[in-house]
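WARN no homologs supplied; continuing
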Amino acid sequence: MFQTHENLRYEYRRSPDQDAPATIHHPLIVIGAGPVGMTAAIDAAQQGIPVLVLDEENTVSIGSRAVCYSKRALEILDRLGCARPMIAKGVTWNVGKVFFRDELVMQFDLLPEAGHKIPAFINLQQYYLEEYLIGRMDELDNLELRWKNRVTAVENGVDQVTLTIATPEGDYPLSCDWLIVADGANSPTREYLGLESSGQWFLDRFLIADVVMKAGFPPERWFSFDPSYHRGRSTLLHRQPDDIWRLDFQLGWEADPEEEKKPENVIPRVRAMLGEDTEFELEWCSVYTFRCRRMAKFRHGRALFIGDAAHQVSPFGARGANSGIQDSDNLIWKLQLVMAGKAPERLLDSYSDERVFAADENIMNSTRSTDFITPKSGVSRTFRDAVLELSRNEPFARALINSGRLSDATFLTESPLNTTDRDEFAGDMFPGAVMLDAPIEGTGRERWLIELAGNRFTLLYFIDDAASIDPLLLQAFQALSENAIPVRTIIVAGRGGASQGIQTVIDAQGIAKKRYDAIDGTSYLLRPDQHITARWRGFDHDRVISAVETATANC
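OK structure emitted
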């Protein structure tokens, strides 16, 4: 097969820990240097936690694997210093099209409005993402990545976790205060601890084929039901960088995986889809089945499970890596507060509760997509095809088409960390929602609201004219920054200059004001993971402190 990318091989290095007379202790260890494990490690290091990452391999993923990264995942990676090269290299897209028997029946735009820093989606081979993450890890002094270090035993104690590590030069022990488990769907750590993940297998097989070709197709997601070149099945086409195109072919459960992924069987399928005159090279292919399952809970004492180690979904909707990155975003700020002694350990239980809720939402959407794409009975297929047929002319039917509801941020509306509304608001920026971005002006240049929010508790205070703010209010904002858990205030004003000691930005286009349904005095409290945790129509210092205590399980 033709190859456009040559994987880097990373050097195994003997660690001083291997020669120590006693077991060396680390504050935080992450098992697994995939996208989710590395994201967690970078976030922890940026928040001041020394972190050690262990991985049994010494290279990045083979083949493009996960290729679709959502706006929310990219916003998180942008805060970690990784999204810029991803967006520069990746293929940006927001338009999807659905075809039925070769006819376009539906088209959607995932980000039809302007005023967002991050695109709706990019396509990028997983090996590029992993290389960018490794590069970012190398820049952080309090983060170490050890290749060819395979965890072979885990003991989850009351006060610490003890591990046995196998290397090319023998075994050695380690211990840590906290363990993040990101070692994949078949997690050995889960097995070592006697834990289970349960769910549903789907009896279907799909062929992935990455082909290299020069083609004039636009950078869009094309999903086809029952196309003329693959009758009775479905296909998917995505563009990636380096003139690589991801093609998916539904095969059916009866297909022989080993036979189907042989080039002599893949190439005719690809040629039928692309046309006899299209020149292409086959780069990588695989046949997969999938399942939707999860662990009952994601925290077990001092072991915290994230990504595929905690939950799995079907690939429809790009919910795997994207949801795992959101796991990390939810976990690390809570872990930092617990390790700093500013929050009780029960705050980590909220990580499990919130991300189990998110996993169930992802599994539900993924299962519904799978049921629509691969009907399990004749009645289901008749209904599916009727919906597709009607959608040619009937708008109501288009809303029923499900070719994979694409990954989006989970709104944690039922979280006990939220403060219940006391005031009336319109729009979607309610407690539990992820903050919406908006362009703002500050320090003489255009900036973005979401990048200023960062990874700390932040109060957004809206006012039409910054010059009209009472000096006593500025003192109250300053007092918030001196709280045991500091809260930084950002004044979002329609006009006016900077307010002494408090960051002020200008919402010149009024986009932030509209998205947050803001009037003078409107205040939003953001968690470090940029979820809204409370909002009010007026500022009250004591209510803000109380909401912070609620959001950190300190009450």
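The chain has a mean pLDDT of 93.
OK
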